Amino acid sequence: MKSYSRQSYNLLNSLRETVEREALISSADHIICALSGGLDSVMLLYFLLYYKKQLDFKLTACHLHHGIRGLTADEDESFVRELCLQAEVGLDVRHADVPALAAEENLSLEAAGRMARHDFFRDLIRKYSPSTAGSCRIALAHHADDAVETFLLNLGRGSGSRGVSSMRIADGYIIRPLLETREADLRKIALAESISWREDETNLSPEFLRNRIRHQLLPLWSELVAYDVSPVLLRYIGTVRENEDYLNRQAEEALKKACLPDNSLSSVIIADLDPAIQKRSLLLYLEKYYKDELDTDQADISNAHLTAVCASIQEAVYGDKKQRRHYLPQAVVAEIAESRILLLKNERLC
Q: What are the extents of the domains in the chain?
């Protein structure tokens, strides 16, 4: 039986309490740990191995080779394979050409990488769910500092409160057991326990906006106000999530009333909603009918886009412009008429 230092045990027990409070894992579940080989994912596996001794769920891992970093990425894969071999954890590996995907879909490398990862995750869920008595879930290693960075990214993109609170501990088949834990605490335990991990040199590159937020904006902000701003932002994110949960429940009820027999939406009903509920109803509609095709967690379809669509709905019902078409990100088209609203993927237009 492996022994843990007091410091490690305190962290692992805190994560266990989070998992049990949020009911993230049951003994009948199959948990797939997304394992890049970096500090965060290695510490996620470290926790899941610890928790598996207490609750005998099925645990495997997955690794996506993005086809970006050449020999370094090959070494990451080798590291992950060896780690899983030593831990006796099954491993699924996929190779993707993310640069080619980015060029084909006209996306940034970050967005294309996210698309490739979620395609991989969905395929794994489809592969393992039939043989799983409980739920099949993907465990991601996002921590509290990732939540702060995502909040600032989406805030800057104009996503509205829904986007800035989008990273959740549980989100469909995705779970994030580390989301309430700071990266510094994970690093401290990894060093104390002599746990090895791989450093991704792209995490230091100023080419990526997230890195500039992490290494420039947040340190400077904290220096200017003479305290760590991240805990303050995390408390604010928690408050926004509570508000969002309430508003989403209201939007779900509105959407039920607005849906027509042909799965379009009633312009009249949507036009009479409060603007905040209008926008959420439109996003919920997209999630319902295009769940596997859209990345609605991200801010591509922003608050500004939704505001423009809602203005056109008001004009169609109460003004002179009775028909209008909006071309939105992710190849979504909003067709608005006096009586109904259609939200379609571009290729489905007649």
A: 6-141+176-212, 258-348
